[in-house]
């Protein structure tokens, strides 16, 4: 389906939870309170139903995000159910990889196509600082599990003003060694005006945006850099999706009503 500015919207990012086992500083701001309980989030069945009915608006690609999607104990069920939606051509997940050794085999069997792994530094101390005391070795074991089970893997590296000059080449060598693609993400603040001039791979230029987002509490977000949200009507899923697509602005501005951990990027 085309939005008002003739962009074909074929990609839906789904935040399956706002909870996470890490506390990355750029994702969970200081003082952030994660208010939604498990009972307030969309069930696995509801998520699968939304994806299957998204055929009517032309969704062909889905990415599961969070928070951290692997903290949901029904995440394999969600993946398997989405893969039964015949129109979905690509199903991916963005994860910090800490729990991948536990779930990689099951996710591969359920049909997950690819994973993007958030890994901003290969320095153990810096990784701990960025992630709220996460341990780099756990993330590396997750990378190894993803490769072992045959997933297409991208490494998402957020680049800060403080990122040392040698860190990007070191991460590129790491990716080359393991046969992975490095994706550089320009650090940005949702509360600052969206820019369309970036040095790195992400975020994309607004003119190229092809996505909408479904949040864990059942709201549709037409644009990451906007406060606009559309409540999902489970009795009229295609109509809700069409409303969200029509509501996409030409350009993103700011998002002040949610932190990144509730949206999934």
What report would you give on this structure?
With about 260 residues, the protein is of the alpha/beta class. It has helices at about 45-55, 75-85, 100-110, 125-130, 135-150, 165-180, 235-245, and strands at about 10-15, 60-65, 90-95, 115-120, 150-160, 180-185, 210-215, 220, 230. A nine-stranded mixed sheet has the order 6-5-4-3-2-1-7-8-9. The chain is globular. The mean pLDDT is about 95.
SSE order and pairing:
Layout: E1 11-15, H1 44-53, E2 61-65, H2 75-83, E3 90-95, H3 100-110, E4 114-118, H4 124-131, H5 136-148, E5 152-159, H6 167-178, E6 181-186, E7 211-214, E8 219-221, E9 230-231, H7 237-246
Parallel strand pairs: 1-2, 1-7, 2-3, 3-4, 4-5, 5-6
Antiparallel strand pairs: 7-8, 8-9
Helix pairs in contact: 1-2, 2-3, 3-5
Give unreliable regions as ranges: none
Q: Give the percentage of residues in beta strands.
A: 15-25%
The CATH H-level homologous superfamily: Aldolase class I
Task: Output the CATH class name.
Answer: Alpha Beta
- Helix content estimate: 25-40%
Give the overall shape: globular
* Beginning-to-end CA distance, first to last residue: 22 Å
| SS-based class | alpha/beta
From the alpha carbons, calculate the radius of gyration and give it in angstroms: 18 Å
The tally of structural domains comes to: 1
Biggest sheet details: 9 strands, mixed
- Let me know the number of strands: 9
Shape-level CATH architecture: Alpha-Beta Barrel
Q: How would you write the strand order of the largest sheet?
A: 6-5-4-3-2-1-7-8-9
Alpha plus pi helix count: 7
Secondary-structure element pattern, one letter each: EHEHEHEHHEHEEEEH
The mean pLDDT is 93
CATH structural fold name: TIM Barrel
